[in-house]
């Protein structure tokens, strides 16, 4: 496998691991701070809306991470394609 491709895979894996770790910590901290564990279990539409409002910041993390990884992989892919075309 190409060295540059291995580097890309390594960077994406490291970023994903860091992101997942940060997200789990953030979700745990949100649940503890908002005392969401004290609420009864409910799957109604209103309950899900309330939960979504409480953890809306975490959804923004997922969105930002998706944009970041997509941009990074696209740029790196273009670089690899140009280097392959050039040689």
Q: How many independent structural domains?
A: 1
Main sheet properties: none
Number of helices: 3
Uncertain stretches of 5 or more adjacent residues: none
Give a brief description.
The chain is an all-alpha fold and 87 residues long. The chain has helices spanning 3-33, 45-54, 56-86.
What does this structure look like?
The structure is a single chain. The chain is an all-alpha fold. The protein has one domain. The chain contains 3 helices and no strands. The longest helix is centred in the N-terminal third of the chain and has 31 residues. The protein is elongated. The relative contact order is 0.14. The model has no long low-confidence stretch (mean pLDDT 84).
Which descriptors would you attach to this protein?
elongated; transmembrane; membrane; 87 residues; 0% strand
Write the layout of secondary structure elements.
Layout: H1 3-33, H2 45-54, H3 56-86
Transmembrane segments: 7-28, 64-86
Keywords: Membrane, Transmembrane, Transmembrane helix
